[in-house]
Specification:
Spore Coat Polysaccharide Biosynthesis Protein SpsA, Chain A, single chain, alpha/beta, seven-stranded mixed beta sheet, two-stranded antiparallel ribbon, about 240 residues
Length: about 240
């Protein structure tokens, strides 16, 4: 089975990256010689993804201006508008009408290296016949991630940004996933949480409760959530001093 479609959530406002994001979307901030989101697209292309769905907010035209049809980047680009920012789960659900087969999701403001991380995640998902696969790594700050409770290569629980005292492991979701379309039913059945947002973590927990085959795979290499000026500098420092491929 081939995974041909991917979704990149890119509707966030990037307020922590101001004043840079007063002019351009945070996903277009440069890491080395490319926008951070272009590194994600490169990883998708390398993994065999042919069609990429970009989830954007209203008036966020910079991404469509940058990628256009996607042909120059080796993909077919589709743009879906998330009218209100109601959480990552809602952003994924916005692409349902396009994603009618197994697909991958990677956050558009995250930097990964090597770029083979996504191909490895997809290969694992296919080999293990998973319903959902979450890319994880050992994290220093559990309060910034969805933290899993592992059992073998299965996930038996997942909590979004738990207090340190309540974290069942230090394995945190890194913003890279592979899903079957079953995830859409789980998102629709997920109740909004803090700030009325629909958390993707809560939808995954519903799948776990329904005894779906929810697995995790460790992502090796570097991962930087480019959410602050310090993170942006870190990503650029790393890129400029290492072999980014």
């Amino acid at each position: 089975m081939l995974v041909r479609k991917g979704l990149i959530p890119a509707a966030g406002s990037g307020t922590r990256l101001g004043p840079f994001t007063n002019a351009i979307p945070k996903e277009l901030l440069p890491v080395g010689d490319k926008a951070v989101i272009e590194h994600v697209v490169d990883a998708m292309h390398l993994a065999g993804i042919e069609e990429v769905v970009f989830v954007v907010s209203p008036h966020k035209h910079g991404l469509s201006d940058y990628f256009g049809s996607g042909k120059r980047f080796g993909i077919d680009a589709t743009y879906v508008v998330q009218d209100e920012r109601k959480g990552l789960g809602d952003a994924v659900l916005a692409g349902e009408h396009v994603l009618d087969e197994t697909f991958t999701v990677v956050l558009g403001d995250n930097f990964f290296a090597p770029k083979t991380f996504l191909k490895d995640l997809i290969d694992f998902h296919i080999r293990e016949k998973a319903d959902s696969t979450i890319g994880v790594a050992e994290v220093e700050d559990v309060t910034r991630h969805g933290i899993i409770t592992p059992s073998g290569n299965r996930i038996i629980d997942m909590v979004e940004k738990p207090p340190v005292s309540e974290a069942k492991s230090n394995l945190g979701a890194l913003g890279a996933y592979v899903f079957t379309p079953d995830i859409f039913d789980a998102i629709r059945n997920t109740k909004p949480g803090y700030k009325g947002e629909i958390q993707l973590t809560d939808a995954i927990r519903l799948q776990i409760e329904e005894k779906k085959n929810v697995l995790y795979n460790k992502i090796n290499g570097i991962h930087i959530d480019v959410g602050t000026p310090k993170d942006l500098m870190h990503a650029n420092d790393w890129y400029l001093t290492h072999d980014s491929e």
